[in-house]
Backbone:
């Protein structure tokens, strides 16, 4: 199984983070190294307690690209968003299209780009998410940018395990059978129940992620 560099992009609340983590879990269970790249914007908002201003967008995009480059190619690399998403939001929120050249040049470094579909329900997430009304326009801008640059992409739809299986198939990998799915979920359950060491970057529970992120923001607001 040849290691791939995978980009996962898409509108807000479409399961990018969960898909990043579960894909990595499956690849590791199949005996291969897999590195996940977290979303820089999420960490930035958590640290600053606000969303970025126009002049701060480029730095966030560059930091996201740098995190991927630092991972190298020692095994699979799966990035939860890329500079393309920063470029899209700069375009949409601030009418600034200047980040596209840098973002799309970086996007071409990936072996495959997965776009998460809009079939999941929208969930509020502290400062980062504007509302369900922006998902359609963001999805359109993402696809237009990729098509404009001739970057091939595949859209991933599906609920629950089906979404993961569709992503695996899009990558040319075999989907999970029921036994493999149960083993993976049992391993995740062991982490969540404290029977194994807790590591947030191994957790694919979106509700847990949401509670943690919004809780940290609330703590910052009371300081």
Residues:
């Amino acid at each position: 199984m040849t290691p791939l560099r995978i980009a996962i992009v898409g509108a807000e609340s479409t399961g990018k983070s969960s898909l990043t983590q579960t894909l990595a879990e499956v690849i590791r269970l199949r005996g291969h190294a897999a590195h996940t790249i977290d979303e820089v914007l999420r960490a930035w908002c958590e640290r600053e307690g606000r969303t970025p201003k126009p002049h701060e967008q480029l730095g966030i995009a560059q930091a996201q690209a740098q995190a991927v480059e630092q991972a190298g190619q020692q095994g699979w690399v799966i990035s939860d968003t890329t500079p393309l998403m920063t470029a899209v939001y700069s375009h949409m929120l601030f009418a600034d299209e200047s980040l596209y050249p840098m973002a799309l040049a970086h996007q071409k470094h990936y072996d495959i780009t997965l776009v998460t579909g809009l079939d999941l329900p929208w969930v509020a997430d502290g400062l980062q998410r504007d509302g369900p009304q922006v998902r359609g326009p963001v999805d359109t801008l993402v696809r237009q940018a990729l098509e404009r640059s001739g970057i091939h992409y595949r859209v991933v739809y599906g609920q629950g395990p089906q979404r993961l299986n569709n992503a695996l198939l899009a990558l040319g990998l075999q989907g999970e059978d029921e036994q493999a799915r149960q083993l993976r979920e049992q391993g995740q359950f062991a982490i969540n129940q404290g029977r194994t060491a807790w590591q947030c970057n191994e957790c694919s529970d979106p509700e847990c992620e949401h509670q943690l992120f919004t809780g940290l923001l609330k703590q910052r607001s009371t300081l």
Observations:
- The chain has nine helices and five strands.
- The first strand starts at residue 5 and ends at 10.
- The chain has a mean pLDDT of 82.
- The first helix runs from residue 16 to 29.
